[in-house]
Structures are given as C-alpha cells and as structure tokens.
Please model this.
Amino acid sequence: MMSSGLLYALVGLALFAFGLAGVVLIGHLLRRILAFNLMGSGAFLVLVGLAQRNDLPDPLPQAMVLTGIVVSVAATALALALVRRLQALTGKPELPEAEDE
Model:
C-alpha cells in the first residue's frame, strides 16, 4: 500500500517534470516563469513527501520548504520585473533570436 508521503513525492516528481518541459519548450517568458514556479512547487512537494517517516514529520525539510517558498517568491518578482523591462524595450515578452555571424 502506498503511503501519503510517497504519493506526495510522486506527484511532486510529475509537477517537476511538467515544469521542466515548460521551461525548455515554451518561448513566452511569462509562461516560462510559471513553468519554473511549477518546477519549484514540485520540488517542495517531493521534500515534504519524503520528510515523513513513521507518520512523524521531520521539521528540517519543512523549514527548507518554507525558506524555498520565500526565495521563489522573490525570484518570481525579479523575473517578472525583468520581463516587463524587456517588453518595454522590445515590445514583446520573448527573448530575441540569436543572430548567426
């Protein structure tokens, strides 16, 4: 029988994989930021899921997840500010194509 911790970890792995695919495959920067946040949420879910042993939660991974949430909010705010600046300069929220020389 599957424990709830293992179920959380498996769902977290799936979220991380979906987010990674989004970061690699999507060109629109706002959607890429959302995919990056999905990756982070998946990693947090894996940490919380694997932190449970014998139905007792381990406080260290939970503290790491709380710290990670704060860092991810700050990183998202910085990324959104950079996308806004790029859109103001180029008129579109995508990275410019690399030119061959």
Q: What stands out?
A: The helical segments are 4-25, 29-50, 59-90.
